[in-house]
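Supplementary Methods. Inverse-folding protocol.

Structures were first reduced to a discrete structure-token string of length 209. This string, shown here, constituted the complete conditioning input.
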């Protein structure tokens, strides 16, 4: 009986102490919109989905370019995956570099009408180290710049709403927003998809350190 008990204890060790638990990084991208029949932010997000950076798994979701639906989808993902970090990606069609956003504004503009996103702070500041990320990207040969204006449309809306939600619920989550340029096939000044994917990996690693 003693030998049997020891054998059972040995078999249970991997189950009790050697599980495959790991942290989650949530990466979001947007669906195509307007003139952009392909959105590289979604393509980068899905290319990273299921990969690991250290012991952290990347889980990616694609958001509709709709204020309320997109935010509800992020809230559901936070509840489901309980990420320690969220990196939202968006397309800046005029960008010639990767923009690491630092400030989200409490304003939304849609069809020429602007209003506050909610009755809250005028700005939210991302905890991601924008200058450090940019320096790291540049050291790898990628064009990158810190940005202090994420626009007034869906990208800024998600950026502000997510930071505000984290604040209001006192969640231990680092959140940031990164604008990517168009694909090389979309604009001459664009960027190859593989380069975007590698650049976002570098940005995530720099944010984790």
């Amino acid at each position: 009986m003693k030998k049997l008990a020891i054998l059972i204890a040995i078999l249970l060790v991997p189950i009790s102490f050697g599980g495959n638990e790991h942290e989650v990084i949530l990466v979001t991208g947007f669906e195509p919109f307007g003139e952009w029949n392909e959105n590289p932010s979604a393509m980068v997000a899905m290319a990273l989905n299921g990969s690991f950076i250290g012991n952290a798994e990347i889980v990616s979701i694609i958001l509709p370019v709709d204020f309320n639906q997109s935010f509800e989808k992020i809230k559901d993902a936070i509840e489901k995956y309980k990420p320690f970090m969220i990196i939202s990606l968006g397309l800046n069609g005029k960008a010639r570099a990767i923009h690491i956003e630092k400030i989200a504004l409490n304003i939304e503009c849609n069809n020429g009408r602007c209003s506050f996103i909610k009755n809250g702070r005028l700005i939210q500041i991302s905890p991601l180290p924008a200058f450090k990320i940019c320096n790291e990207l540049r050291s790898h040969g990628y064009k990158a710049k810190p940005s202090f204006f994420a626009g007034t449309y869906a990208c800024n809306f998600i950026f502000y709403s997510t930071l505000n939600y984290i604040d209001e619920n006192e969640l231990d989550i680092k959140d940031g927003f990164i604008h990517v340029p168009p694909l090389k096939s979309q604009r001459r000044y664009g960027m190859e998809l593989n380069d975007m994917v590698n650049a976002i990996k570098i940005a995530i690693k720099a944010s984790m350190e």
